[in-house]
Design a protein that fits this description.
heterodimer; A: five-stranded mixed sheet; five-stranded antiparallel sheet; 34 strands; B: 357 residues; mainly alpha; 3% strand; elongated; FIBP (chain B); fibroblast growth factor binding (chain B)
Chain lengths: 1029, 357
C-alpha cells in the first residue's frame, strides 16, 4: 500500500444551466480513482457552486497511481430522473510521483464533455503521499522522469546516456465493440478517452521499468503515439532514450515532491543485477508471413533509402587509426544494446562525432485483428478490462506489432552499419493507416558517437583528449564516418572546407538539429518536397502490393525534389529532415520537410542545368535557355536573400584540386532480410557530371516549373523546422505558438498525378502564405519548428495540419551575421556554457557532482516568487484562484489588476523559451481528447467545430500546466489530429493527442533584477549566488 | 480544389483591430474582404485575395466565438479558452460596447423593447449603419439596462463593475439607461440639433441631483429612477409664478442685478415673466410621467427657443440663469429654498448645455 492520493473539490464556476425552469444547476461531483468513488454534497441552485469538500483519500498501489487517471465528474442532481452529466476532468497524477516535479496539483480545470466541449470550470486540489516500498519486484517505476524534449533538458546534465527504450500496448478499440451499438456516443467517447489514458499510463510505467533496469533515472525524447487501427484494435506505442540525469542546481532548494521516491530511486538500481540485455521481448526480428488464414497477414518491405551526399576527391589517411580506435570503444558500448538508437536531436557537446546520413525504412503491413483473449468486453467497469500487452498473453500470434517494429529497426541498424556508423540518432517512428493497410516508417541519422556518456566509468581520459584534438570545432560531424577506401557505395568526397584535413561529402542530409558548434554561412530556410501519386483502389494484398510498388518511386522523387530545391537555395545540407508518406484510398502523399543551411565545411553546391532532349527547333531551345536563366537568377537571388557568401577558397590552400561542383547520390537497396525486392534504385542520375534536369516531356517541364513556384517568405520572415534558425541569434521574448488545419476537397474530374501535385503544392504554399500574413505584426520573426502533417481522411479530401511557433527577433542585431556562427543563440549559449562548465567533472562522474556548484546556478522558483519584486512576480506567476492555504508556498501574488485571474501559460514546440530560463520541469503532459457533435451546422460548420475544439485543447493543456504550478509547455507537439465529418448527417468527430513538458521559467531580465535585489530582500539565504547567465 | 475547412488557432488569440472594426460594423465576410482590399493591404503585404479571405473568415469565427463572452465581460477575463493579454481584452470589450452617435440618437429615451427592435430596419436605412451593427448596439443597451436596472449603488459604478467599461463609456451607458428608464423624448424635430453628448451631460446632472440616490446615499441608492417625492414637492414652486407679487419681486431683483450687464437686457426684461413661468411650470408638471418624458421638449420650447429667437449670447444666458436662481433666496415669502436649489441647480446646468444652435 505504497501511496495515498488525496483530492479536494473546492468550487465550480461558469457551469451551464441544467435546469431550464430555474436557469440554474444543482451540481455535485464524483471523484473516482480505480474502483473507488467519492461524492460531494449537492450544491443547490448555483452556477458557481462552492463545495469545499473534505479531503477524499484513496489508498492505492503505486502501480495504479501510474496507470490510472484521476477522474472527476460533475453532475446535475435530479430528484426524479437520472442525474445529468455536465462533464469530466481527467487528471494525470504522474507528475506528483517523482521528486523535483510538482508537489501539488491545484487550480481551475475546464470541465470537458465530449459532446458539448468545455462547460465551466472546477477548482481541484490533488496531493499524493508516497511510502517507501522495499519490494524489489514491484511493477511500478515511480520516480523515473519523462521528457518530451529531444535534447538533455536545460536544467539537467547527462551523466550516462543508456540508449533506446520502447514498448507497446494493445487493446480493442471501444469504438468498435459490439456494445458501442447500444451505448451513447458520449459513453463511447469517454470509454475511449479513459482507455487511452490507462494505456498511456501503463506504457509509461513499463518504459520506466526498463529504464530502471538499465540503471537510468529518466527518459528523454519520449514520443508516444496511437495507432487507431479500427476494427483490428488500438495500439499505443512509445520510444525514448534512457538516461541518467543530474540536476544542475542545488537540490536542497526544491521541496521534495513527496515522501522521497527519489531516494528510493537512487538506491534501487544498484541492487539490481546488472543486466545488459535490456530488451528481452524481441526475439524474432525476422517476420515470417504467418497468415493462419488466407490474407490474414501480409507484409511487404520496400527498398529503403540511405541519403548521403557524395563528391569526388583523393583519399587522405589522417585520422584513420584513431577513428578505428574510437569506433571500437563506442561500439563495445553500443553493441550491448539491441538497437543503438537515440531519439535525441541535439546532443551534449562531444557526443556526436560524425554523421553518416539519413537512414530510413518502411514496411507495408496488412492489419489483422489483434487477438485479445483475455478481454472481457464490458467497458466502463473500471478494471475489468485490465490491459494487455504482448508479454502477458499467449495467443497464436503473440508478437505481431512488436515483431513488425523489431524488423524495421533491424533494417535501420543494418543501414547505419553500411554507412560505417554504429548508432542512429534523431530516431523516430511513425505509421500511416488506411483501412486495413498500414505503412510503418522509421528514420534517423546514422552517426558515430563518442563513448563518453554511453557507459559508466569506461571513459578513458587520454582518448578523451584525442577526441578533442582530432575534432576541429564546427566541422567534425560533417566528416565521413565510413572508410574512404572501402566505401559502401560509389561516392565523391572533398577535403573539408573548414579544417582541410578530413573528407566530407558534398551534401549532407540529417534528421537532427543543427549542432550548436556547426559553422554555418548565412541563414537557413524551410525546404519542402511534396508529392502525390494516384493509386488504384484495391483490397488487401493487392492494395499492399500496389502501395509497396509505388513507395520506392515516391522516395526517389521526394529525394530528387529535396536535392533540387536545396540547390536552388544555394545550400548544401539539410537538418531535421522528416519524410512523411501518407496512404489514402486512392492515392499516396509524400511530404518531406527540412531546414536547409550552408555548412562552411561542405563544398559549394553546383547549379542546376537544364537540357532538352529534342533539340529540334529554335524556339524550344530558346525556351530552355529562358528557363535556365530563370533558375540561375533564382539561385543568385536566394543566395542574396539567405546571405550565403562563402569566402573564396584558393586551390593552393586546399592542396588538392577542388572538384567541379557536382552531386551524385544513390539509393542504397535495403539489405535487410525481409526485403523481397531485387531491383536496385539508383539516385545518381546516370553518369552525368553536373546536376542536370532533362526536359523530355511536359511532365518534366511541370516539375521544373513547380521548383520555381515556391515563393520565398515575405521580407521580415524566416522559417525552419528545426529548433533554432541558423544565423539568427538575438531572439526577443515574444512567441506565438499556433496550429493551423486545412482540409481541401479535390474535384474528382481531373485526378491526374500532375493535377494532384499542383493542388497539393498550392495547398501547402497557400497555407504558408496565410501564416505569414496572419503573423505579419510580429515581424521580424522566424517560424521555428514548422511541423506539417498530411492525412487523407476520405477519398478526395486532403488534410494538412501545421504546428509551429513564431519568435520575434531584434532586427538590428540580426544584421551582424558575421558573428552568427561564433556565438550561438543567446539561450543556447547560456545553457551551453553551463554544460561546458560541468563537463570536466564528468570524468569523475562516480561521485555525482550535483553539489559541485553550491552557489546555486539557477535561482530556484521559490526565490523568484518571494523576492518581493512585483514586476518580476507578475511575469513568472501563474495565478491560481485556489483558496487552499497550503498552496501558498507556490508562486503566488496578488493579481496585477482585480479582474484578471488567469495566468499566462506559454506553449512552444521548442525545448526553450527565448529570453527566459527554465528553472524546473514539472512533468510530462500527455493528453488525449475526443470531441463529437451532432449539430455541426449550429457550431459553425466544420471550421467552427474544429476551431473551438483546438482552442479547448489548448485551454485544457494550459490549465493542467497552471495547476502543476508551471507557466509554460515546452517541446509541445500535436501528435494526432484525426478529423472525420459527415455533413449530410450534421455530424463530425475529432480526436486530438498532444504532449509536452510542463515547466517553470523565469525571464532572464527578472533573474537579473532578482539577483541584484536578493541581498536586500534576504528571504532566501540559499540564493545569494550570482546568476551565471 | 475547394477548401472544406480552414482554421488558425494561436496559443495567444490573434486579434486584428481592423477586422474587428469591420465585424463590429456588421459587414459580411465578403464585404469586409472587399473593404480590406480597397485599403491597399494586398499591396502592402503581397498577399493574395484568397489569403485575405481565409484570414477574414478566421477572425470572424474568432469574434463570433468571443461574442458570447463579450455579453458578460467578466467572463472574458475568467474564461480559459482564449488566452488574450489584458490590454487586448479591454480593447475587445470597449470596442464591442462602443456605439454610433447616429444610432444612439435614434434610440435614446425609447423603451428598449421588442417593438423598438422591430424599428431597427428603419433606423438602419436612415443612418446608413448596417442592421447587424444596429442590433448589436441595441442589444448592448438592452443588456446593460437589464443588468443594472434593479441594482443599488452608483449607476456608473455598477455598469463599470459588470461590463468593465472605461469611465467615459460607462457614463454614456448610465445616460442611456437613465433615459431609457425615464423614457425622455429626444426624437422630436426641435430636439434634433442636440447631440448625444448634450443629453448625456444632462442625464449625469439629473442622476446626481434628482434621483433617489442623490439624497439617500446608502440604503435606497437607486440611480435609475427620479426621486418621486422630489417631483411631487416641485409643485410647491408654482407659487413663484402664481403669486403675482412674488413674481414681480423676483423680476425686479433680477433686473436690478443685471442692469447694464446684459446685451439683451430689454429682451430679458420683456420676456422675464414668460421665461420664469415656463421654467416653473416645467417643474410643477413633473408629477405626471407624460410630462417627465417631455422635459427636454418643454425646456427647448419654453426657454431655449425664446432666448434663441432674441439672439441671446450664451454668456448672457449664463448670467441670467445664475441671477434668476440666486435671487429667489432674497424672496422672503418663499419657503422652498432647498427644493428650488435642487431643481434649479440641475436645470441651470442642463439649459446652458442645451443652449446652442
Amino acid at each position: 500500500m505504497p501511496g495515498k492520493l488525496k483530492v479536494k473539490i473546492v468550487a465550480g464556476r461558469h457551469l451551464p444551466v441544467m435546469d431550464r425552469a430555474s436557469d440554474l444547476t444543482d451540481a455535485f461531483v464524483e471523484v473516482k480513482f480505480g474502483n473507488t468513488t467519492f461524492k460531494t454534497d449537492v450544491y443547490l441552485k448555483s452556477l458557481n457552486p462552492q463545495w469545499n469538500s473534505e479531503w477524499f483519500k484513496f489508498e492505492v498501489d503505486d502501480e495504479d497511481l501510474q496507470d490510472e487517471p484521476l477522474q472527476i465528474t460533475v453532475l446535475d442532481h435530479d430528484t426524479y430522473s437520472a442525474n445529468d452529466a455536465i462533464g469530466k476532468v481527467y487528471i494525470d497524477i504522474d507528475p506528483l510521483l517523482y521528486s523535483e516535479a510538482a508537489t501539488v496539483i491545484s487550480g481551475w480545470f475546464p470541465i470537458y464533455d465530449t459532446i458539448h466541449g468545455i462547460r465551466g470550470e472546477i477548482n481541484v486540489v490533488v496531493k499524493v503521499d508516497l511510502f517507501n516500498d522495499l519490494n524489489r519486484f514491484r511493477q511500478s517505476s515511480c520516480g523515473v522522469k519523462f521528457f518530451c524534449t529531444t535534447s538533455i533538458p536545460k536544467c539537467y546534465r547527462a551523466v550516462v546516456i543508456h540508449g533506446f527504450v520502447e514498448e507497446l500496448v494493445v487493446n480493442e478499440d471501444p469504438e468498435y465493440q459490439w456494445i458501442d451499438r447500444i451505448r451513447t456516443p458520449r459513453a463511447s467517447n469517454e470509454a475511449r478517452q479513459r482507455l487511452i489514458s490507462l494505456m498511456s499510463g501503463e506504457l509509461q510505467r513499463k518504459i520506466g521499468l526498463k529504464v530502471l533496469e538499465m540503471r537510468g533515472n529518466a527518459v528523454v525524447g519520449y514520443l508516444q503515439c496511437f495507432d487507431l487501427e479500427g476494427e483490428s484494435g488500438l495500439v499505443v506505442r512509445a520510444i525514448g532514450t534512457a538516461c541518467t540525469l543530474d540536476k544542475l542546481s542545488s537540490p536542497a532548494t526544491f521541496l521534495p515532491a513527496c515522501n522521497s521516491p527519489s531516494k528510493e530511486m537512487k538506491e534501487s538500481p544498484l541492487v539490481h543485477p546488472p543486466s545488459h540485455g535490456c530488451r528481452s521481448t524481441h526475439n524474432s526480428p525476422i517476420h515470417t508471413a504467418t497468415g493462419s488464414r488466407l490474407t490474414q497477414s501480409f507484409s511487404v518491405s520496400v527498398p529503403t533509402l540511405i541519403y548521403t551526399g557524395m563528391g569526388s576527391g583523393s583519399a587522405g589517411k589522417e585520422g584513420g587509426p584513431f577513428k578505428a580506435l574510437l569506433r571500437q570503444q563506442t561500439q563495445s558500448a553500443l553493441e550491448q544494446r539491441e538497437f543503438p538508437f537515440l531519439t535525441l536531436t541535439a546532443f551534449p557537446p562531444g557526443l556526436l562525432v560524425h554523421v553518416g546520413g539519413v537512414v530510413s525504412a518502411r514496411s507495408v503491413k496488412l492489419l489483422d485483428r489483434i487477438h485479445n483473449p483475455a478481454f472481457v468486453g464490458i467497458m466502463g467497469n473500471t478494471r475489468s478490462y485490465k490491459l494487455l500487452d504482448w508479454n502477458s498473453f499467449n495467443s497464436d500470434e503473440p508478437e505481431t506489432r512488436d515483431a513488425w517494429w523489431a524488423e524495421i529497426r533491424q533494417e535501420i541498424k543494418s543501414h547505419a552499419k553500411a554507412l560505417g556508423c554504429h548508432a542512429v540518432v534523431g530516431y523516430s517512428e511513425s505509421t500511416s493507416i488506411c483501412e486495413e493497410v498500414c505503412i510503418l516508417s522509421a528514420s534517423g541519422t546514422a552517426a558515430v558517437l563518442s563513448p563518453r556518456f554511453l557507459q559508466e566509468g569506461t571513459v578513458d581520459g587520454s582518448l578523451e583528449q584525442r577526441v578533442e584534438e582530432n575534432l576541429p570545432v564546427g566541422c567534425g560531424f560533417c566528416h565521413i564516418p565510413y572508410d574512404e577506401l572501402n566505401m559502401p557505395f560509389p561516392a565523391h568526397l572533398t577535403h573539408c572546407y573548414n579544417c582541410r584535413k578530413q573528407k566530407v561529402p558534398d551534401v549532407l542530409f540529417t534528421t537532427i538539429d543543427l549542432p550548436t558548434d556547426a559553422v554555418v554561412i548565412g541563414k537557413g530556410c524551410l525546404i519542402q518536397a511534396r508529392l502525390c501519386r494516384l493509386k488504384k483502389k484495391a483490397q488487401a494484398e493487392a492494395n499492399a502490393t500496389a502501395i509497396s510498388n509505388l513507395l520506392p518511386f515516391m522516395e526517389y522523387e521526394v529525394h530528387t525534389q529535396l536535392m533540387n530545391k536545396l540547390k536552388l537555395k544555394g545550400m548544401n545540407a539539410l537538418f531535421g529532415l522528416r519524410i512523411q508518406i501518407t496512404v489514402g484510398e486512392n492515392m499516396l502523399m509524400g511530404l518531406a520537410s527540412a531546414t536547409g543551411v550552408y555548412l562552411a565545411a561542405l563544398p559549394m553546391p553546383g547549379g542546376i542545368q537544364i537540357a532538352g532532349k529534342t533539340p529540334s527547333d529554335g524556339s524550344y531551345e530558346q525556351h530552355i535557355s529562358h528557363m535556365q536563366k530563370k533558375i540561375n537568377d533564382t539561385i543568385a537571388k536566394n543566395k542574396e536573400l539567405y546571405e550565403i557568401n562563402p569566402p573564396e577558397v584558393s586551390e593552393e590552400i586546399i592542396g588538392s584540386p577542388i572538384p567541379e561542383p557536382r552531386q551524385r547520390s544513390r539509393l542504397l537497396r535495403s539489405q535487410s532480410e525481409s526485403s523481397d525486392e531485387v531491383t536496385e534504385l539508383d539516385l545518381s542520375h546516370g553518369k552525368k557530371d553536373a546536376f542536370v534536369l532533362e526536359i523530355d516531356d511536359t511532365d518534366a517541364m511541370e516539375d521544373v516549373h513547380s521548383l520555381l513556384t515556391d515563393v520565398p517568405p515575405p521580407s521580415g520572415f524566416y522559417s525552419c523546422n528545426t529548433e533554432i534558425m541558423p544565423g539568427i541569434n538575438n531572439w526577443t521574448s515574444e512567441i506565438q505558438m499556433f496550429t493551423s488545419v486545412r482540409v481541401v476537397r479535390l474535384s474528382s474530374l481531373n485526378l491526374t498525378n500532375q493535377a494532384l501535385n499542383k493542388n497539393f503544392n498550392g495547398l501547402c504554399e497557400n497555407l504558408l502564405k496565410s501564416l505569414y500574413f496572419k503573423l505579419r505584426s510580429m515581424t521580424p520573426c522566424c517560424l521555428c519548428h514548422v511541423n506539417f502533417t498530411v492525412s487523407l481522411p476520405e477519398d478526395e479530401l486532403i488534410q494538412v495540419t501545421v504546428t509551429a511557433v513564431a519568435i520575434t527577433f531584434d532586427k538590428n542585431q540580426a544584421l551582424q551575421t558575421t558573428k552568427a556562427h561564433a556565438e550561438k543563440s543567446l539561450q543556447r549559449a547560456s545553457t551551453d556554457n553551463e554544460e561546458l562548465l560541468q563537463f570536466p567533472l564528468e570524468l569523475c562522474s562516480d561521485s555525482v557532482p550535483s553539489h559541485a556548484f553550491p552557489a546555486a546556478k539557477e535561482h530556484p522558483e521559490s526565490a523568484s516568487s518571494n523576492s518581493g519584486t512585483p514586476a518580476a512576480q507578475r511575469a513568472v506567476t501563474v495565478e491560481k484562484a485556489s483558496p487552499m492555504g497550503d498552496g501558498n508556498f507556490r508562486n503566488r501574488s496578488a493579481p496585477p489588476c482585480a479582474g484578471s485571474t488567469v495566468g499566462v501559460v506559454k506553449m512552444t514546440p521548442l525545448s526553450f523559451i527565448p529570453g527566459a530560463k527554465i528553472t524546473k520541469y514539472l512533468g510530462i503532459i500527455n493528453m488525449f481528447f475526443i470531441r463529437e457533435t451532432t449539430s455541426l451546422r449550429e457550431e459553425g460548420g466544420v471550421s467552427g467545430f474544429l476551431h473551438t475544439f483546438i482552442a479547448e485543447v489548448f485551454a485544457m493543456v494550459r490549465a493542467h500546466v497552471a495547476a502543476l504550478g508551471g507557466n509554460a509547455v515546452v517541446s509541445y507537439i500535436m501528435k494526432q489530429c484525426v478529423f472525420m465529418e459527415n455533413p449530410s448527417k450534421n455530424q463530425a468527430q475529432c480526436l486530438i493527442n498532444v504532449s509536452g513538458d510542463a515547466v517553470v521559467f523565469v525571464r532572464e531580465s527578472d533573474l537579473e533584477v532578482m539577483s541584484t535585489q536578493q541581498p536586500a530582500v534576504n528571504c532566501q539565504p540559499t540564493c545569494t549566488g550570482e546568476v551565471t547567465t | 480544389m475547394t477548401s472544406e475547412l480552414d482554421i488558425f488557432v494561436g496559443n495567444t488569440t490573434l486579434i486584428d483591430e481592423d477586422v474587428y472594426r469591420l465585424w463590429l460594423d456588421g459587414y459580411s465576410v465578403n464585404d469586409a474582404v472587399a473593404l480590406r482590399v480597397r485599403s491597399g493591404i494586398l499591396e502592402q503585404t503581397g498577399a493574395t485575395a484568397g489569403v485575405l479571405q481565409s484570414d477574414t473568415m478566421d477572425h470572424y469565427r474568432t469574434f463570433h466565438m468571443l461574442e458570447r463572452l463579450l455579453h458578460a465581460p467578466p467572463k472574458l477575463l475568467h474564461q480559459l479558452i482564449f488566452q488574450i493579454p489584458p490590454s487586448r481584452q479591454a480593447l475587445l470589450i470597449e470596442r464591442y460596447y462602443t456605439f454610433d452617435e447616429a444610432f444612439v440618437r435614434e434610440v435614446l429615451g425609447k423603451k428598449l423593447s421588442k417593438g423598438t427592435k422591430k424599428d431597427l430596419d428603419d433606423i438602419s436605412t436612415k443612418t446608413g449603419i448596417t442592421l447587424k451593427s444596429c442590433r448589436r448596439q441595441f442589444d448592448n443597451f438592452k443588456r446593460v439596462f437589464k443588468v443594472v436596472e434593479e441594482m443599488r449603488g452608483s449607476l456608473v459604478d455598477n455598469i463599470q463593475q459588470h461590463f468593465l467599461l472605461s469611465d467615459r463609456l460607462a457614463r454614456d451607458y448610465a445616460a442611456i439607461v437613465f433615459f431609457a428608464n425615464n423614457r425622455f423624448e429626444t426624437g422630436k424635430k426641435k430636439l434634433q440639433y442636440l447631440s448625444f453628448g448634450d443629453f448625456a451631460f444632462c442625464a449625469e446632472l439629473m442622476i446626481q441631483n434628482w434621483t433617489l440616490g442623490a439624497v439617500d446615499s446608502q440604503m435606497d441608492d437607486m440611480d435609475v429612477d427620479l426621486d418621486k417625492e422630489f417631483l411631487q414637492d416641485l409643485k410647491e414652486l408654482k407659487v413663484l409664478v402664481a403669486d403675482k407679487d412674488l413674481l414681480d419681486l423676483h423680476k425686479s431683483l433680477v433686473c436690478t442685478a443685471l442692469r447694464g450687464k446684459l446685451s439683451v437686457f430689454s429682451e430679458m426684461e420683456t420676456n422675464f415673466k414668460n421665461l420664469s413661468r415656463g421654467l416653473v411650470n416645467v417643474a410643477a408638471k413633473l408629477t405626471h410621467n407624460k410630462d417627465v418624458r417631455d422635459l427636454f421638449v418643454d425646456l427647448v420650447e419654453k426657454f431655449v427657443e425664446p432666448c434663441r429667437s432674441d439672439h441671446w449670447p450664451l454668456s448672457d444666458v449664463r448670467l441670467f440663469l445664475n441671477q434668476y436662481s440666486v435671487s429667489v433666496h432674497s424672496l422672503d415669502g418663499f419657503r422652498h429654498q432647498t427644493l428650488w436649489d435642487r431643481y434649479m441647480g440641475t436645470l441651470r446646468g442642463c439649459l446652458l448645455r442645451l443652449y446652442h444652435d
